[in-house]
Every structure is written in C-alpha cells, then in structure tokens.
Amino acid sequence: MTSVQLHSNLTHASLTPEQIENPVTGDRMTILCSTDEYVKFQFELPPGSQGSPLHYHDTITETFEVLSGSLEMQFGHSGNIKVLRPGEILQVPPGLQHSFRNASHDWVTFISVVRPAGDFEHFLRSLYGLAIDGRVNHEGTPTNLLQFALLIEKADTIVVGPPVFLQKLMIKFLATVARFLRVEQSLAKYK
C-alpha cells in the first residue's frame, strides 16, 4: 500500500449536522461529527472554487471522499493530479503535500475526515466566522496577521513554497505575540 490510499465506501455516521456558509468563497461546510479523535466535515464547493493551496500537515491525516461532482486533488510531487469522482476516497497522510479545488462547472460535495481532531474544527469555524464577519480578503484569508498565525498553528498547516524553517519560525513568533496580546479571545466566539 502506498502513502496515498484510494478507498471506497467510507462509513458515514452523523450526529446533529450544522451547516456554515462562507459568503466570500461561496463554500459550504457541514460539521457531521466531532470527537477528540477525529472530526468529519461535508464540504460543498461551487464551480471554479480554488479550495485550498498546496500544503501539508505535520501530524494530521486527511481523508477525502467525493459524494457528487468531481474534486481535483494535487498530492505528492508537483503535477501529480487526480480527479476524484463519487465514491472515490483519497487518504493523505502527515507530511504529504496536497491541495484541492473544483475545476468543474458543477458543484462538488465531499466528506473530509481529519485525524487527530486537534484544533482543526476551531480552525475551520474561525475561517468561516471571520468571513461572515467581513474580516477576510477576497480569497478568504484573514486580514489580521496575528489571527492568521493562530489559525495556521491550529490547523497544523505548512504552506508549500516559503522556506519551512522561516515559515515555522514566523508563525511561532506571530502566534506567541498574538497570545501575549490576547488575540486568541477574538477567535473564541467561533468555537
């Protein structure tokens, strides 16, 4: 089995779903299940949605399962692209670069499971909440650099491109300043 696994028929167990819409990107997120071990989301991306930039996580495993439409995933080496269709699942282990987008002219709906859960739910709730509150740019990125640093830290995310050492140093520094200035309190309402 390779580091990227393609599966079918992921079991879906939902509790009380809660849908949140991002007014800037048009994406919709439904939180299906949240435990200490994992969090399960359903995402709906409009046609042409850019999804997420190329990134990886140090400790998180993400699983993507398409329910309808098609989801373009880039993973591993540059140019390694797979279009997931309904019923197809891609598991992305820690350290593997990946991004997703909806390159089609139709909506795509997919399930994402994040293990371990950590603060990933708070990260996503905060991104959507800041968008609802008008505190993001036209791409959906928080305009407050200190809030952005805290969120990147919560998501255990490394963006591909900038030198990793400098990126981690900068995020750690900005997140420390943010905690000192109690910027975390401005994100508490999104929990």
Automatic annotation (TrEMBL):
Question: Where in this chain does the record put each Cupin type-2 domain?
Answer: 43-113
Any single Pfam family the record assigns to this protein: Cupin_2
Q: Which InterPro entries match?
A: Cupin_2, QDO-like, RmlC-like_jellyroll, RmlC_Cupin_sf
- Identify the species of origin: Halotia branconii CENA392
Q: What is this protein called?
A: Cupin domain-containing protein
What PANTHER family does the entry give?
A: PUTATIVE (AFU_ORTHOLOGUE AFUA_8G07350)-RELATED
